[in-house]
Specification:
With 87 residues, the protein is α+β, with helices and mostly antiparallel strands. The chain has a single domain (2-81), classed as 3-Layer(aba) Sandwich (Aminopeptidase). Helix content is 21%, strand content 26%. It has two helices and four strands, in the order H-E-H-E-E-E. It starts with a helix and ends in a 6-residue tail after the last strand.
Length: 87
């Protein structure tokens, strides 16, 4: 998942939006760890009648060509903003 986010940042994305079922605790945990925030709860979003959360990751673009830059140890840094949460 982080590889996809890194590529999106390199391509210039400033926001990443996704939806996941409210009952999918594994996905919600992963997305929360990655910095996604719940923006909206959507009733009966899925064909099975399940509710969904719309989640958003706000990426802080500083104007560089490679925002997901490698550190000297080869790790990748993502610069994200988690200043506001809407439920």
């Amino acid at each position: 998942m982080t590889k996809v986010i890194e590529r999106m940042i390199r391509k210039g994305c400033t926001e990443i939006l996704l939806e996941t079922e409210v009952s999918n605790s594994g996905a919600l945990g992963l997305y929360t760890k990655l910095g996604f925030m719940k923006m909206e709860k959507m009733a009966r979003y899925y064909l099975n009648g399940g509710d969904a959360y719309r989640l958003m990751l706000f990426v802080d673009q500083k104007g560089s060509d490679d925002e997901a830059s490698s550190t000297q140890h080869g790790a990748t840094e993502l610069s994200i903003s988690t200043n506001s949460i809407v439920t």
